[in-house]
Amino acid sequence: MTTTIPHRLFINRCFDLAKLGAQGTSPNPMVGAVLVYQNKIIGEGFHRWHGSDHAEVNCINSVSPNNRQFIKNATLYISLEPCCIVGNTPACTDLIKKLGIKEVIYSSIDPTPGVNGTSKYLLEDAGSKVTLGIDYKKGDHLIRYRSVFVRFMRPYIILKFAQSADGFMGVNDKQVWLSNSYTKTLSHKWRSEVDAIMVGTTTAKLDNPRLNTRQYYGTSPLRLVLDRSLRLNNDLHLLDQSTPTWVICDRDHSKPDLYHLKYIQLDFDEQLLPNVLKRLYQANRGILLVEGGSQLLQSFIDQNLWDEARVFSTQKYLQKGIPAPKLNRPIDNKWTLRDNEVHQYFNPTYINC
Fold it and tell me: Which residues contact 86 (CB under 8 A, 6 or more apart)?
């Protein structure tokens, strides 16, 4: 007697595949797909890069010539509802209908306007059996970047900082390293998975950061620095034109754009951060990592403009200095990397959007 393997096993394989696209899919979602015939995976794929073939296409293309005869009677598992609109690539529902795949099972609904639950009815009308909602909480978490981007028309915002055991993140006018070599490498990995990274004037002057991915493979994100009066020296790493960079300045302090260096003029008022986010959305940047100082980070928190926070909590004591930002909510996840503990927080206002 043949035992039917639970749908969750194959859906979770889709989740694992989807995460392989973490460095290139934004602002599109990470998606994985597997094709199963008689309890055996005969094809699998994931969305690799924004604008490239979707997971379903890569999955079908991976099926060997000997197994292509089984495609029609196989079950297609997908971490996310297949798209039914034409963008940079054709609609995946059209491919599924063309191949006559009998059964489609996916975890979450795609919140993208024009999709958002429509695919189920299109596929059912074509004769496919459709099941959705398998491990949907994991599926929804996987597409949280995309959900925020399309529903709130801004990038998903991740706040990142390190703090001492007594709640300080630095000392005035002095550079202090709190993270260890492991968490530094992890920071560079995170940079490779976002579209933009932001700091303020003081951090740029005092720390002279590069904000690139030199300790991890992958493309460096767009760099943003707030410099209201253009006080930063040209010899700083952020202005070296090695990576595309936006300098956010006041309207009265403009400069001509240079190669990889663009000056964005905005009013430095209560709408500054929303206007920066609007510019990033218009530029199709789906994930923003904020690595600034306490003042900039607290400004995002006070305006409720954050979705996730990643905090390195160290064993070092500073006794005095710059207080770390206050999130005022319990830790959602934590893990240890040598003498650093990584704390992860989610903003309940947006995480269940």
Answer: none
CB 295 within 8 A of CB 278: no
pTM: 0.95
287-290 vs 156-163, strand pairing mode: parallel
List the one residue out of 37, 294, 298 whose CA is nearest residue 176. 294
Per residue in 329-343, pLDDT (tens digit) is: 999 999 999 999 999
The domain boundary residue, chosen from 149, 167, 183:
149
Question: Do residue 107 and residue 18 come from a single domain?
Answer: yes
Residue carrying the six token digits 């003042």: 295
* CA angle in degrees (0–180, nearest 5) for 251-253-256: 100
Q: Give the other-Cβ count within 10 Å of 30's Cβ.
A: 26
What DSSP designation does 195 have?
Answer: S
Domain count within the chain? 2
Q: Are residues 335 and 189 in the same domain?
A: yes
Task: Please report how the helices 92-99 and 118-125 are oriented relative to each other, as an axis angle in degrees rounded to 10.
Answer: 20
Q: Say yes or no: 145 and 160 in one domain.
A: no
Task: Give the C-alpha separation, 250 to 314, whole Å.
Answer: 36
pLDDT in tens, 217-232: 999 999 999 999 999 9
Find how far residue 138's CA is from the centre of its chain: 15
Q: Which residues form the catalytic set?
A: 56
